Amino acid sequence: MFVFKTHFGNLDSPQLSSGIQRLLIKTSDIESQYHHQWSDESRTYFAANFRSSDLSISDAFNPPNNQIDQTAFSLNHQMKFGEFKFEIGSRAEHNSNVEKEWHISPATRLSYQASDSLFFWGSATKSFQFPTYIQQRIKIKIGEHPSSKLDIFLKGNDKLRAEEIIDYQLGLRFKSSEDTLIDFNVYYSESDNIIADDLADIFFNNFELFNQYNNLLRHQTQGLELSLQKFYSEKYQTQFNLTYYKKNVFLMNSSKATGINLGISTAPNYKISWLNTAHFSSKTYLFGELTWVDNYFSEEEENIKQHFRLDIKLNHQYNSNVDIAIMAKNIFNNELEANSEFVIKDPQKVEPSYQVQVKYKID
Q1: Which has the minimum average pLDDT: 156-170, 220-234, 291-305?
Q2: Is residue 203 within 8 Å of 186, Cβ to Cβ?
Q3: Per mean pLDDT, which range of 4-13, 141-150, 277-286 is the poorest?
Q4: Partner of 54 at 20 to 30 A CA spacing, among 64, 213, 291, 332?
Q5: DSSP 8-state symbol, 296
Q6: In whole angstroms, what is the distance from residue 202 CA to residue 154 CA?
Q7: 3 state DSSP class of 66
Q8: Beta bridge partners of 54
Q9: CA angle 325, 312, 233 (to 5 degrees)
């Protein structure tokens, strides 16, 4: 089977922030896929992708116009031996704005169906995250030096390397009955060449002070996730989640990806959540989530203290076109925390809030 796709699009944002007055991105995509089934137990997938992005951005960038071409080829093969299933593949990527060589990302996965109720799996992957155009080209004022009164600018770096991520996972799924499901997995990950701006490293050039993006950090993360789902009936389900997460952050040397352990983690080590969904009818349901979060490091003045939060949503489908929802967010807590899970760079004061939402679908 062969598939060929093309896509052309424009994104025009008049104002993103005080330093980025306008962003215009024109993209062209070409994608092809090929699938060949050798037998019932063996099949191969091949894909080729090309994306060209033409960026026009405000004077906060130097140069304000740029073209980025991204090319990728991927090959994946799946085989089945009895109750074992084995997958192996690789992806080759090239980004015109990052170095000159191709980046190769191998991956493999092995699974075993031990019985109708027990399933094991494991995987190992390598991937790359390319620097953004902002990290490469931006020049924006971020402050003023207290003694010299010179402006301090955050500056992009066109010598940035791609971030490299290696990930290992092992897991199992156990279905103890028709209404109970247990998922468990452990993981370990290493990330090199992590891009960050070093506020302690400010340099002087042409009567201006600069802080620049660099490949500064190395991350080591490990943890486990446990999930228990219970379906009491078609109208009521509950889910319990336990997460353990540990991250070590290293400051890289100029010569190799090892260095000083900074001893910080911007995510909680432990997180427990309890989710419940109750359907009163085919059109009305109530959802609630109670979460406990362990204390963790913050880049703000205060670290995040351990705390509970409760979110509730009552949704009713009035008719085929109208949905009405009443939502309560963070009902009894207003601790500092981030809106995105495990992305805790800029925690916010999450005040309790109540909202009424009406969605109308036009046929």
Answers
A1: 291-305
A2: no
A3: 4-13
A4: 213
A5: B
A6: 9
A7: strand
A8: 26, 67
A9: 90
pLDDT of residue 24: 67
Q: How many CB atoms lie within 10 A of CB 337?
A: 21
**Is it true that the peptide bond before 64 is cis, omega within 30 degrees of 0?**
no
Q: Is 360 exposed, middle or buried (0-12, 13-18, 19+ CB in 10 A)?
A: exposed
Task: Please state, as a whole number, how many other Cβ atoms lie within 10 Å of the Cβ of residue 321.
Answer: 11
Determine the Cα–Cα distance for residues 129 and 108; give it in Å rounded to an integer: 19
Give the whole-angstrom CA distance, residue 258 versus residue 298: 24
Q: What does the pLDDT average to over 152-160?
A: 80
Q: How far apart are CA 157 and CA 127, in angstroms?
A: 22
Q: What does the alpha-carbon distance between residue 214 and residue 198 come to, in Å, rounded to a whole number?
A: 8
Q: Which of 313, 314, 221, 309 is nearest to 269 (CA)?
A: 221
Contact of 291 with 280, CB cutoff 8 Å: no
Tell me how many degrees the CA angle 75-76-81 measures, rounded to the nearest 5: 150
Angle at CA of residue 288, ends 293 and 232, nearest 5°: 115
Mean pLDDT of 342-349: 45
Band (234; pLDDT cuts 50, 70, 90) = confident
Tell me which long-range contacts 22-30 makes (C-beta under 8 A, separation of at least 24).
22/56, 22/57, 22/58, 23/55, 23/56, 23/57, 23/58, 24/55, 24/56, 24/57, 25/53, 25/54, 25/55, 25/56, 26/53, 26/54, 27/51, 27/52, 27/53, 27/54, 28/52, 29/5, 30/5, 30/6
Per-residue pLDDT at 224: 94
Tokens for 286, please give them. 């109530």
Q: CA 280 from chain center: how many Å?
A: 34
Residue 227 clears pLDDT 60, i.e. is over it: yes
Say what the pTM is: 0.76
Q: How far apart are CA 163 and CA 3, in angstroms?
A: 31
Residue 327 corresponds to which tokens in the numbers above?
């939502």
How would you classify the pairing of strands 23-39 and 42-57?
Answer: antiparallel
- CA–CA distances in Å: residue 55 to residues 43, 52, 213, 230: 39, 10, 20, 49
**Distance from chain centroid for Cα 289:** 22
- Report, as an integer, the average pLDDT of 67-89: 92
For 133, the 3-state DSSP assignment is helix
SS3 assignment, position 344: coil
